[in-house]
Amino acid sequence: MGVQSTAGPTRAVTISAGGTQLAGDLTVPDGATGVVAFAHGSGSGRRSPRNREVAELLNEARLATLLLDLLTEGEESVDLRTGKLRFDTPLLARRMVAAIDWLTSEPAVARLSVGCFGSSTGAAAALIAAARRPERVLAVVSRGGRPDLAGAELASVRAATLLIVGGADPVVLELNRQAQEHLRCENSLEIVARVVPLPLEPPKPG
Description:
about 30% helix; about 210 residues; 5 helices; nine-stranded mixed sheet; Rossmann fold
């Protein structure tokens, strides 16, 4: 059963991705003009208060939102120990593409244009998904993300792209600048005063 938010009904959904079942929360306000799919790395799932706060603001602006866990609970437990799955960009990207395809088949949002909001390594997954589904994804926002991990697919992104990076995180800022050089779409890099720095490398086990 869904729950009622101030911006519209929210319901739990399950998305099939390559034999894996991913959990998500879909909120569709009345008169929605678009839908935003969230992509994030480990440790910041669909229940994250920060993600939910952003989603609520989007809902109030008449945008539907899909808060999605790109890793299953079991995978999340493994990743918290090894830090490897959050850096498996091909895996995350395939699942993000599956989520966008699912939105196309979901009657409540099937006709809406899609935007992607990515943080951490999820930003790379969002950009790759945008490159692979250019007819569906019209905009991408990366918050404190690692767009550089999208590699050669950056040049294929057609969606308008906004990169947001904290000024106190110079290494990630430089990685974003390098990624921006490979983008051929409309894009902008915005530096803000305070964004929590993100890990650059997966921790080594043991």
